[in-house]
Specification:
binds 5,6-dihydrouridine-5'-monophosphate, binds zinc ion, 20% strand, alpha+beta, globular, HIT family, subunit A, single chain
Length: 349
């Protein structure tokens, strides 16, 4: 990137949602005397009798998990969205506006093993997770009342994850939520203007530049996006223009499992801990319309900033004005790029 920009405060445009972010590269030496996170390393058993997600155990509502051997999906016992509710709407002068929102929440256990994470699973073990994402997206998305299926994983207590057992969630809604709605709008706009796909063009550009690439394989690539907000945020892109996980071939699913394993392993090597993040898929809406401009991708949003104990806060200016970052996306990418993506290689910590 141009050095007069990369050394001084500047703002970068996120073309996927149509927002600007502030970058302050000169500020990385800022001292920190605030809150640090506890990073006690725990060793976990393969089966924890007190875990509500382990096979054969009883959940908080009394339901008993089967002795599952691969992935296991159940309807969230404390679902934020409900499917069978009366339809209603209120609008008073455009100021007091509300409408009913139907939906479904599910929990997906990635493995029966309590001690694993995606980073410690093999690609072959992650393929069933990809298949489950695909199957649930198809099944939930085909319901007429569901307009969007959000598949995600919260990892680590720092991200509000309630249990270390490897698991993710699905929240599916009647309306398209704010962020996918903004991405839909921008991808449509770009395709109308340029006649090509925003993320296909973006990936081609990133591959030619190289400075923000983290890793790639035959079917997928991971970059620190030019407009990244979180310090070590990454964007996982399918190389083929396709709208959703169910469209992926067997080979692509294996490649996806491989790149997820490699990316999460790199993250774990960064600060020498099981790296916390929220990751999630952005697939085309399931509202029955055609979404040819949509390009399948996932975002990893990790909160850690400079060590295992110092995280980034989105407060002050960021709450009131716009997001801001200190280290440049290029320097974050350079660090992630050189980290090992295997466990038998020495890590840099
Ligand atoms: P996290 O991914 O943030 O840890 O959330 C786990 C979900 O599991 C959470 O949404 C659900 C919670 O409602 N849950 C159950 O459905 N059953 C239980 O017995 C405990 C937790
Ligand atoms: Zn468990």
């Amino acid at each position: 990137m141009d050095s007069t920009l990369s050394k001084f405060p500047h703002r970068r445009y996120n073309p996927l949602v149509g927002e600007w972010i502030l970058v302050s590269p000169h500020r990385t030496q800022r001292p920190w005397q605030g809150q640090t996170e506890d990073t006690v390393k725990e060793t976990r058993p393969q089966h924890d009798p007190s875990c509500y997600l382990c096979p054969g155990n009883t959940r908080a509502n009394g339901a008993v998990n089967p002795s599952y051997k691969s992935t296991y999906v159940f309807t969230n016992d404390f679902s934020a969205l409900l499917d069978d509710i009366p339809e209603n709407r209120q609008d008073t002068d455009g100021l007091l506006t509300a409408e009913s929102e139907r939906g479904i929440c599910k929990v997906i256990c990635f493995s029966p093993r309590h001690d694993l994470t995606l980073a410690h699973m093999t690609a072959d073990e992650i393929v069933p997770v990809v298949d489950t994402w695909a199957q649930e997206t198809l099944e939930i998305g085909s319901r007429p009342e569901i307009g969007y299926v959000e598949v995600f994983e919260n990892r680590g207590a720092m991200m509000g994850c309630s249990n270390p057992h490897p698991h993710g969630q699905i929240w599916a809604t009647e309306h398209i939520p704010n962020i996918p709605a903004a991405e839909l709008h921008r991808q449509n706009e770009y395709m109308q203007e340029k006649g090509s796909c925003l993320l296909c063009d973006y990936l081609a550009l990133e591959k030619s530049k190289g400075e923000r690439m983290v890793c790639e394989n035959e079917h997928f690539a991971v970059v620190v996006p030019y407009w990244a907000t979180w310090p070590f945020e990454t964007l996982l892109l399918s190389k083929r223009h396709t709208e959703s996980i169910p469209n992926l071939s067997r080979e692509e699913r294996l490649s996806l499992a491989d790149i997820i394993r490699r990316t999460t392993t790199k993250y774990d090597h960064l600060f020498g801990i099981s790296f916390p993040y929220s990751m999630g898929w952005h697939q085309a809406p399931t509202d029955g319309a055609e979404h040819k401009s949509w390009h399948l991708h996932a975002h990893f949003f990790p909160p850690l900033l400079r060590s295992a104990t110092v995280k980034k806060f989105m407060v002050g200016f960021e709450m009131l004005a716009m997001p801001q970052r200190d280290i440049t996306p290029e320097s974050a990418a350079a660090r992630l790029q050189e980290l090992p993506d295997e466990w038998n290689q020495p890590c840099n910590q």
